[in-house]
């Protein structure tokens, strides 16, 4: 996004509710005077903190308009080297996958439908290796005392602060129709992110969600632009890539989900376009794989700068419940991935990264449910291994689409993935009693293979249950 | 889940025990399975109590046979007035005209749910005029769809937008003029902007049971399904039938037909999708419109169909939504397919049929005034039934199908009522015999307390509550008995006032929010028995109320929620 000039700032200001509130306040302040000078207004504004509010408002507009730089280097050197290792590992996996597909072409009888470069378990296993590496060096003493899988010295938010932040969700009340209609109008008229975030934090009525997302991502008047961009990408899809094959295999899994099978084709189209989209590299908030180029390798990283992974289709699926227009679905998916979901695959010390989220979950579970934590450790089925799937895929497939979209609301509302920590903790608490009875990994698997139904609100409740 | 009835109702309380019932059918799919699950016996002879016949049988045999008073059959004599494409439209048009003539313009305007239709060859000239008029207006894109009358499963259907495309059909018709019926068609304006989901066209199959045309008695089934085409919809390409026709019979032949899911969503999933996309209110309106569409369709033919107490009919309505969520009636099937292509589908259809049989009530255990039986909701009895204004629902169509819980409740309350009437008839008999009343009562008491359920009630009547380890059940039934003694007997019917909703009132409103799907609202005209039934429902609900109250939208979801296949399986297993 380019720099804004004064005119544009004013326009943005005018589109926010807060601006009009301030104006009203000023008007009220001068209602009895006839001549008003600029100085009077300035004095008045200073006296009742209006100036501060205005400054905040403008700075918020400017901040939002500034392009976010993609994070390439992490502040912790150790993670930078790890990222390179991770990338190398993935290149190796790619070779294996490629070899397998070649074999399959020769031998039709042996079709392996589970072809992917990496999945969430690989990712966790890789994160686990950090412990050993670090313990060899500095933190040996600390390691001995801890049962946690991950214990790396990165700056972490206190888990209590996360719990406090989302506690308001417990107090959600039923909203009257009148209030819901008010929110609807607000979404239609509001343009300022900070206000949209507030709405997303509390409640988004069905039917308005798409508009809210589009506005938040500043897509609301760009329908034709989005469409053109998408059509262009679709044309590029005519050139087959090796990765297409992987995506197609990936799509089969989604086709077995009752809620999403209808959208299989749309999802695949979106993903094919996604791996061909040049703009992703500049928009993505964090670089997932270190962009090393292998001179003699048969394959390079896709244009996006990272490999497609297993179940990538899951991220697209719930968005199909928002719009019938595929270019809108694509635009939303792209933005969600570049802003948020990328962190779920990033080896980084950022507060949203998979590493931080995992560590926070471990922290909360080990302090609030030490018995469960210990029990899982003993039966060889660590806490994180249990919830890694739900965490990385945002509970998609575990909850019904409207609940998933509520999670998305929260992600936007707080510009953060921390809600997933709350939900994962709630998830474990929900099945706590059953898990405590489990004697081995098979028991645990059995618990989760049974029919179950998890709901957003329910998991939040469980998360705060002592 | 008729097993609940078998479980709770004692053998001697049945007016007609299920082991005495016989059925006859030539079908070998879900129908046979559903019959067998009720433990009825199959027969080849004429001594059947219920017959599930093919349509043709009705036409050939029914007029020449005398049916016994207890015999039931699954078609009305001239059902084709509604279920043959051309006659249906003719009847709708005629009914609409009558309404206009009677000055009921508003109601007449509601008959706008079928596309512009002409009967060919008889109305060919009018059609040709209309076609020409449109072409002259520069509208060359409007497509028309030709459907052969009386064929099903999408056979013989084609779409065209140039008059030349039907010239071939016209020619063959001319050759066949000796036998004009052979190629009778209807031609309909094609609905060109259907609602697409995932880029695919779909239509809905919804089940409606009619047990009588006088008074018009209709039950609507909560679960239906949406059938998707397998190819992306393309308005330009009108020759590819896979794109345009949703019939399973057609889609099955497509290359990438998915066996596992059968290209279907159940109605609850569809509702969930629509709610997420369009919001609660719009979807509620749409589903209400669908319900009214079905009632209006039957009202239009009410006076034409020959009513017969032997007959009932299960209709499969095919309904299409356009991009504005307006429902269009495509067709009414008199014998909707009862073969299944997935296990979920199989259970859905068996459950549906089981509920049909419960409503038909060959065992004669119900009062006939039940508002919900299994997955069926009574939507019309003489006049359409209106739900209370403060109800969260405008229609139960597509709501959570709680048939299992509901049948359990209804079986329990029925058992109580039957035990009651049985006892009363016994006491009467004794009174007539003047002596030995006490002894008889003692006997009765002994006999009843030997088994659970309805018998516990006797304790309540006698004012002595046995301490029972089933204390919960005890209290529920005890509380009911305070209302019970007068119930179920006809002469007292008017004396017993139903408690209006205020009574169940504030606290139950919460219950309704969280479990509203399972509770039916009061209707002042209802039989008094139901109030006991409802109280029972309420009480059983109270013990089940969830601790937390999710916020509004969430609770509305809950009604629909989880009735994706996951829950359906859970329920029906």
TrEMBL record, chain A:
Spell out the protein name for this chain: Rab-GAP TBC domain-containing protein
Q: Which domain of life is it from?
A: Eukaryota
Q: Where is the Rab-GAP TBC domain?
A: 313-436
PANTHER family cross-referenced by the UniProt entry: TBC1 DOMAIN FAMILY MEMBER 19
Q: Which InterPro entries match?
A: Rab-GAP-TBC_dom (IPR000195), TBC1D19 (IPR042507)
Transmembrane domains' residue ranges = none
One Pfam match, given by its short name, reads RabGAP-TBC
TrEMBL record, chain B:
Give the Polar residues compositional bias ranges: 448-494, 526-558
**One GO CC annotation, please?**
ciliary basal body
Q: What is this protein called?
A: Tubulin--tyrosine ligase-like protein 9
The biological processes this protein is annotated with in GO are: microtubule cytoskeleton organization
MF annotations from Gene Ontology: ATP binding; tubulin binding; tubulin-glutamic acid ligase activity
Mind telling me which PROSITE patterns this protein's record contains? TTL
Q: Where is the composition biased (Low complexity)?
A: 502-522
Organism listed in the record: Paramecium primaurelia
What does the similarity note say?
Belongs to the tubulin--tyrosine ligase family.
Q: Which InterPro entries match?
A: TTL/TTLL_fam
Q: Where is this region: Disordered?
A: 427-573
Q: Which UniProt keywords apply?
A: ATP-binding, Ligase, Nucleotide-binding
User: Can the keyword Ion transport be found in this entry's annotation?
Assistant: no
> Which residue intervals are annotated with compositional bias (Basic and acidic residues) in the record?
436-447
- ATP-binding is among the record's keywords: yes
């Amino acid at each position: 996004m380019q720099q804004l000039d004064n005119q544009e700032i004013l326009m943005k200001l005018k589109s926010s509710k807060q601006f009009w509130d301030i104006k009203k306040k000023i008007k009220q302040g001068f209602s009895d005077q006839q001549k008003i000078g600029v100085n009077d207004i300035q004095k008045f504004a200073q006296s009742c903190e209006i100036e501060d509010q205005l400054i905040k408002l403008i700075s918020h507009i400017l901040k939002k308009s500034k392009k976010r730089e993609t994070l390439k280097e992490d502040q912790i050197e150790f993670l930078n080297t790890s990222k390179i290792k991770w990338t190398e590992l993935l290149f190796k996996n790619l070779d294996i996958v490629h070899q397998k597909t070649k074999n399959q072409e020769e031998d039709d009888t042996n079709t392996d439908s589970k072809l992917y470069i990496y999945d969430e378990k690989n990712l966790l296993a890789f994160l686990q290796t950090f412990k050993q590496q670090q313990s060899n060096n500095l933190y040996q003493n600390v390691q001995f005392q801890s049962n946690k899988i991950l214990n790396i010295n990165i700056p972490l938010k206190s888990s209590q602060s996360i719990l406090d932040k989302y506690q308001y969700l417990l107090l959600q009340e039923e909203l009257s129709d009148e209030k819901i209609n008010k929110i609807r109008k607000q979404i239609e008229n509001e343009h300022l992110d900070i206000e949209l975030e507030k709405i997303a934090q509390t409640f988004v009525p069905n039917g308005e969600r798409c508009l809210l997302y589009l506005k938040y991502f500043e897509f609301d008047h760009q329908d034709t632009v989005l469409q053109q961009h998408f059509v262009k990408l679709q044309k590029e899809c005519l050139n087959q890539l090796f990765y297409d094959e992987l995506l197609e295999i990936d799509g089969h899994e989604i086709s077995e989900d009752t809620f999403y099978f209808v959208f299989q084709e749309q999802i695949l189209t979106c993903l094919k376009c996604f791996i061909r989209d040049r703009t992703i590299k500049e928009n993505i908030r964090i670089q997932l794989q270190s962009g090393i180029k292998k001179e003699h390798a048969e394959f390079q990283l896709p244009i996006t700068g990272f490999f497609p992974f297993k179940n990538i289709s899951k991220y697209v699926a719930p968005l199909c419940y928002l719009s019938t227009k595929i270019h809108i679905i694509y635009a939303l998916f792209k933005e969600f991935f570049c802003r948020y979901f990328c962190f779920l695959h990033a080896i980084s010390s950022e507060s949203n990264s998979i590493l931080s989220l995992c560590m926070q979950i471990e922290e909360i579970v080990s302090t609030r449910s030490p018995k469960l934590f210990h029990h899982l450790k003993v039966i060889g089925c660590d806490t994180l291994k249990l919830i890694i799937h739900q965490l990385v895929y945002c509970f998609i497939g575990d909850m019904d689409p409207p609940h998933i979209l509520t999670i998305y609301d929260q992600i936007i509302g707080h510009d953060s993935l921390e809600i997933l920590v709350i939900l994962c903790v709630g998830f474990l608490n929900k099945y706590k009693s059953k898990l405590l009875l489990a004697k081995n990994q098979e028991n645990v698997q059995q618990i989760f293979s049974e029919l179950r139904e998890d709901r957003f609100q329910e998991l939040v409740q469980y998360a705060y249950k002592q | 889940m008729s097993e609940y009835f078998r479980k709770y109702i004692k053998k001697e309380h049945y007016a007609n025990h299920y082991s005495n019932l016989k059925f006859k059918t030539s079908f070998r799919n879900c129908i046979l399975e559903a019959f067998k699950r009720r433990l009825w016996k199959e027969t080849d002879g004429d001594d059947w109590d219920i017959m599930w016949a093919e349509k043709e049988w009705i036409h050939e045999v029914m007029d020449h046979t005398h049916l016994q008073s207890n015999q039931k059959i699954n078609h009305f004599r001239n059902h084709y007035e509604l279920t043959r494409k051309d006659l249906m439209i003719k009847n709708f048009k005629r009914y609409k005209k009558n309404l206009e003539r009677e000055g009921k313009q508003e109601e007449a305007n509601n008959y706008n749910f079928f596309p512009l239709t002409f009967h060919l060859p008889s109305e060919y000239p009018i059609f040709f005029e209309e076609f020409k008029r449109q072409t002259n207006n520069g509208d060359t894109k409007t497509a028309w769809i030709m459907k052969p009358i009386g064929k099903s499963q999408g056979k013989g259907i084609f779409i065209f937008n140039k008059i030349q495309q039907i010239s071939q059909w016209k020619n063959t018709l001319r050759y066949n003029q000796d036998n004009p019926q052979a190629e009778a068609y209807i031609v309909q304006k094609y609905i060109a902007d259907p609602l697409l989901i995932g880029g695919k066209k779909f239509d809905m199959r919804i089940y409606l049971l009619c047990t009588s045309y006088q008074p018009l008695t209709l039950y609507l089934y909560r679960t239906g399904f949406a059938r998707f085409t397998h190819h992306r919809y393309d308005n330009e390409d009108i020759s590819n039938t896979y794109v345009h026709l949703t019939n399973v019979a057609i889609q099955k032949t497509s290359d990438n037909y998915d066996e596992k899911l059968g290209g279907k969503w159940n109605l609850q999933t569809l509702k969930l999708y629509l709610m997420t996309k369009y919001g609660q209110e719009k979807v509620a309106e749409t589903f209400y419109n669908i319900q009214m569409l079905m009632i209006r369709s039957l009202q239009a033919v009410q006076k034409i169909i020959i009513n017969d107490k032997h007959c009932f009919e299960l209709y499969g309505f095919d309904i299409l939504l356009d991009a504005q969520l307006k429902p269009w009636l495509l067709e009414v099937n008199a014998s909707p397919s009862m073969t299944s292509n997935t296990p979920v589908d199989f259970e859905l259809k068996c459950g549906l049929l089981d509920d049909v049989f419960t409503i038909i009530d060959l065992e004669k255990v119900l009062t006939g005034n039940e508002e919900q039986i299994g997955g069926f909701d009574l939507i019309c009895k003489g006049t359409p039934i209106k739900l209370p204004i403060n109800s969260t629902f405008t229609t139960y169509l597509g709501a959570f199908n709680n048939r299992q819980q509901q049948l359990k409740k209804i079986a329990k309350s029925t058992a109580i009522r039957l035990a009651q009437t049985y006892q009363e008839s016994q006491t009467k008999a004794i009174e007539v015999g003047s002596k030995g009343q006490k002894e008889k009562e003692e006997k009765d008491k002994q006999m009843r307390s030997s088994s659970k359920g309805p018998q516990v009630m006797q304790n309540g009547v006698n004012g002595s509550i046995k301490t029972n380890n089933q204390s919960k059940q005890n209290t529920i039934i005890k509380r009911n008995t305070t209302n019970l003694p007068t119930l179920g007997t006809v002469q007292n019917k008017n004396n017993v006032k139903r408690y209006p909703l205020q009574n169940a009132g504030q606290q139950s409103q919460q219950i309704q929010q969280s479990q509203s799907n399972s509770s039916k609202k009061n209707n002042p005209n209802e039989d008094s028995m139901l109030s006991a039934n409802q109280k029972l429902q309420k009480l059983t609900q109270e013990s089940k109320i969830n601790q937390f109250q999710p916020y509004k939208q969430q609770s509305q979801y809950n009604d629909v929620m989880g009735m994706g296949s996951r829950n359906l399986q859970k329920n029906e297993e």
